[in-house]
Amino acid sequence: MSGESVSKDPKDALSKGPQDTPRAADDLVVLSGVNKHFGALHVLQDIDLTITRGEVVVVIGPSGSGKSTLCRTINRLESIDSGTITIDGKPLPQEGKELARLRSDVGMVFQSFNLFSHKTVLENVMLGQIKVRKTEKKAAEEKARALLDRVGVGTQADKYPAQLSGGQQQRVAIARALAMDPKVMLFDEPTSALDPEMINEVLEVMQQLARDGMTMVVVTHEMGFARSAANRVVFMADGKIVEQASPEEFFSNPRSDRAKDFLSKILHH
Ligand SMILES: Nc1ncnc2c1ncn2[C@@H]1O[C@H](COP(=O)(O)OP(=O)(O)OP(=O)(O)O)[C@@H](O)[C@H]1O
Ligand SMILES: [Mg+2]
What is the DSSP letter of 220? Predict the structure, then answer.
């Protein structure tokens, strides 16, 4: 936990060492030289990625390229073999209370909603606040109700997850993540398991979050969302970041053959 990878050089604190580029105070998530293996598979290869505060980064790429693994390393659901990951200037700790706290700074929404089926919608959104953030029950309930309203499911608060549609459940999952006041939200294909008519209601909530200034990393096949909400598109293939650019630039003028090939496949159906 000593974080030997963290520079204690006082120049860094001033963010303007003479020889290196200034480290912007706005860098929120910084991956540097990150490598990860699953046995013989080198699933993340020398990943360098900086996400600034308020930025919306869409990650795309072929199946198996490492997108989910990348997300999972950012909140340490997966460990890494080498490199560093910092959230708001702090390296991710290995384990313990500090990890639980830092992890709660990173909200995560998965393809499957992972709500507690035996708890009501309201309880699902209150739970983390009470257990991790140590919020009083009354305050947790007020906040949960406000968040459920914000994502458009306020009237569903007393139901159980199975009584909601997929789109509603996913919006509850977003509210639950937001209840922890995360610094960054990670979305891993949040609409992939939804019936088509429910995709937009979830994307609209995400669009609104982006407009409200939330820092977001979004793995998605929804290119419309990428075009309209992303500040940057990161294209991954075979465990590497192959290219990254603004959506306009990436979609109109992909540079690598891998990206051209990928886009020709997904944009034609
Ligand atoms: N826990 C694991 N153990 C072993 N291999 C894994 C594990 N998780 C993922 N992998 C492998 O790592 C590679 C990257 O997987 P990952 O889920 O990150 O890809 P992805 O880009 O999210 O793909 P998809 O678009 O299909 O979701 C794949 O080859 C996958 O089989
Ligand atoms: Mg995936």
Answer: -
Dist. CA 94 → ligand 1 center (Å): 22
Q: Structure tokens of 42?
A: 């080198």
pLDDT 10s digits, 217-264: 999 999 999 999 999 999 999 999 999 999 999 999 999 999 999 999
In this structure, are strands 56-60 and 215-219 parallel, antiparallel, or unpaired? parallel
With b for 16 or more beta-carbon neighbours within 10 A and e for fewer, the 110-135 pattern comes to bbebebeeeebbbbbbbbbbbeeeeb
Of ligand 1's listed atoms, the one at least distance from the Cα of 61 is: 21
Q: Report d(CA 111, CA 222) in Å as an integer.
A: 13
Testing ligand 1's pocket by substitution, the residue of 43, 222, 242 carrying the most ligand atoms inside 8 A of its CB is 43
Residues whose CB is less than 8 angstroms from the CB of residue 115 and which lie 6 or more positions away in sequence, other chains included = 121, 124, 161, 169, 172, 173, 176
CA angle 34, 35, 38 (to 5 degrees): 145
The pTM of this model reads 0.89
Mean pLDDT across 197-209:
95
Ligand 1 in reach of 2 Cβ (< 6 A): no
| 166-178 helix and 121-131 helix, angle to the nearest 10 degrees | 20
- Give tens-digit pLDDT for 36-78: 999 999 999 999 999 999 999 999 999 999 999 999 999 888 9
